[in-house]
Design goal:
The complex is a heterodimer. Chain A is mainly alpha-helical. Chain A is built from eleven helices and two strands. Helices cover about 75% and strands about 5% of the residues of chain A. Helices cover about 35% and strands about 25% of the residues of chain B. The chains are: A mainly alpha, B alpha/beta. Chains A and B meet through helix 1 and helix 6 of A and helix 1, helix 2, strand 6 and helix 3 of B.
């Protein structure tokens, strides 16, 4: 029964065209970034950087490097956007359209309904990250030969990994990226449980994420970083560190799980006392 | 089947429903009448556990909706004024989705119900391609899927053309006759209620101002068509002497309680009027409804006791 109801939520989610906006935009964005990277000076500059540090650029200018390069900013900027868009729609759009009233004329509890919706939103978020990783790699394969992974973040990280190690880290990063996407979806879902329009829920969630991002990047607030949401949303970047800071990952994961539980519990509390009217 | 006791809902400081007592017996087609904003939809919302009562209790199928929503709504189907669905999905998929919120439903059952309501052949089309009438059928199908014993219909004919209204009316009759469903019909279309219901309650300003059978509404204040010379003078005399409670310029008077036609005719003849005819006319539901609401506005309404003056008949 639970699985049938979850299937329903997925039918509803994946039956809508707007659900695919995220998938389509990611594909387009990846293709554009990759093409510019491949056919501009960027790839040559990266190759030079590798060679200046004693590495063979032909080994590391690879699909893994290209996919990591393209997905880095997409995961920071676009992923929250699409997570928030779907999370805001889950409850608020049904309330706005009037279908929520149709559902709640049936003997399903509000908590169960929210749990199903949250689960569907989480599955969407995971699929989005999975697609981001797979399509990044596939697009990368059209431009580069298979090789190791080069990860460079000015002032913070310079790391090279053998193909096998690189692939594991790339896959792991996308698994943790799902956690970040689920968290933003959950935040937007929480706002959607109030009596607000879906757009309002999405904007509220994004505002919090972007505010956190801005504050985190103000140099004067460096020592406050662990207090910002985006600091923990970026836990996936730790997979490209050498060595991997498992403690830092565990801390962020624990905090994000707590936040998700809070968002869900808050959503349930708000939604349970709400009057659902036409 | 439905029992509401001292049910009250206050939104902010505005009472939407006030101390509403109502009983809908099993097997009845019960009409819930009231103008827009009277509190009908809020009452239905509380019946379905969508709106939380401020105080009072709601029993549906013997279970308290606020405490045991699952058992209370297990055998309940509902239709709302605007048939809204997941437009981007097919009718069949909509039915599958909605049915599973109650219990797993077989494809065979969905097919049967779709056919029963007249959706046959179109259930695989996207709902966005449906006409309003088709959506109304789909709404009926989703309400029937759980095999309900109670059907709650909130303005089910809203937006339908005359043919659609007729069809919906016949379907409601068929459901009542063949399946023995108890039906709560909320409407402000008096003709609908008059043709379908055996019992009604009138809600005004969140309060119940009448609860009784349709027969009671007809018998409550019989209308008399008087064919008499100098009608205005005759009506004034009858009103002064307490024979009637009101009149209108078209020759209609309302008999006061305990007075009869022969007594009125005799009195008029004694008073020198030339009475050509006096014919009883049953009071329509519209007359009755308007009089009840008017009385309620004037603060005279007493639940379950129809007031004597019809709004269409002015006191002389």
């Amino acid at each position: 029964m639970l699985l049938l109801q979850l299937r329903n939520e997925l039918w509803k989610l994946f039956g809508k065209k707007r659900t695919y906006i995220g998938f389509t935009m990611f594909l387009l964005a990846q293709a554009v970034i990759l093409l510019v990277f491949r056919f501009s000076r960027a790839s040559a500059d990266m190759g030079r950087l590798l060679e200046n540090n004693g590495y063979d650029m032909t080994q590391f200018l690879s699909p893994l490097t290209a996919a990591t390069f393209t997905n880095f900013w997409l995961a920071i900027i676009l992923l929250p956007l699409f997570g928030a868009l779907v999370g805001g729609d889950l409850v608020a759009k049904e309330a706005e359209d009037g279908t929520l009233r149709l559902i709640l004329a049936r003997p399903i509890s509000r908590v169960r309904l929210l749990a199903l919706k949250w689960a569907a939103g989480s599955i969407f978020s995971m699929l989005l990250c999975l697609m981001l990783g797979v399509s990044g790699l596939l697009l990368g394969l059209t431009c580069f030969d298979w090789g190791g992974l080069f990860y460079f973040f000015p002032g913070e990280s310079f790391a090279v990994f053998e193909p096998r190690d690189g692939l594991v880290r790339f896959a792991g990063a996308h698994v943790f990226m799902s956690m970040a996407a689920i968290s933003v979806m959950g935040l937007s879902f929480f706002f959607g449980c109030f009596n607000v329009k879906p757009a309002a829920a999405t904007i509220l969630a994004l505002s919090i994420v972007f505010l956190s991002f801005i504050m985190m990047n103000i140099p004067w607030f460096n020592d406050l970083k662990p207090w910002f949401l985006t600091y923990h949303l970026n836990l996936w970047q730790q997979l490209y560190g050498e060595p991997i800071q498992w403690g830092r990952i565990g801390e962020s994961l624990f905090l994000l799980l707590g936040m998700n539980a809070t968002f869900f519990a808050g959503g349930v509390a708000v939604f349970s006392v709400r009057d659902i009217k036409s | 089947m439905i029992t509401l006791e001292k049910l009250t809902k206050i939104f902010g400081t505005r009472p939407a429903v006030e101390s509403l007592d109502l009983t809908v017996p099993k097997g009845e087609i019960f009409g819930l009448l009231g103008h827009n904003g009277a509190g009908k939809s809020t009452t239905i919302g509380m019946l379905l556990g969508q709106v939380w009562p401020t105080s009072g209790s709601v029993l549906v199928c013997g279970h308290d909706v606020t405490r045991n929503r699952h058992d209370a709504l297990r055998k309940v189907g509902a239709i709302f004024e605007t048939p809204i669905f997941y437009d981007y999905l097919s009718g069949r998929r909509n039915l599958e989705i909605l049915a599973t919120y109650t219990a797993p439903t077989s494809a065979q059952r969905i097919r049967e119900v779709a056919e029963w309501v007249g959706l046959g052949g179109r259930e695989d089309s996207k709902v966005r391609t449906y006409s309003h009438g088709m959506r109304a059928r789909l709404a009926l199908a989703q309400a029937l899927l759980p095999g309900p014993e109670l059907l709650i219909l909130d303005e089910p004919t809203n937006g339908l053309d005359p043919e659609g209204i007729h069809e919906m009316r016949e379907t409601i009759r068929r459901l009542h006759r063949n399946l023995g469903l108890t039906i709560l019909l909320s409407s402000h279309l008096l003709s609908e209620v008059e043709q379908l219901c055996s019992r009604i309650a009138v809600i005004h300003g969140g309060r119940k101002v009448f609860d009784g059978t349709l027969a009671e509404t007809r018998a409550s204040a019989p209308k008399l068509l008087l064919d008499v010379d100098r009608f205005a003078e005759a009506a004034a005399l009858l009103l002064t002497e307490g024979w009637i409670t009101g009149s209108d310029p078209t020759g209609h008077v309302l008999l006061a309680p305990g007075r009869n036609v022969s007594g009125i005719v005799r009195r008029l003849v004694e008073a020198g009027f030339n009475v050509e005819g006096a014919q009883r006319e049953p009071q329509t539901l519209e007359d009755f409804y308007l009089s009840v609401v008017k009385s309620a506005r004037l603060g005279q309404g007493t639940p379950s006791a129809p007031p004597p003056v019809a709004a269409s008949i002015r006191p002389s």
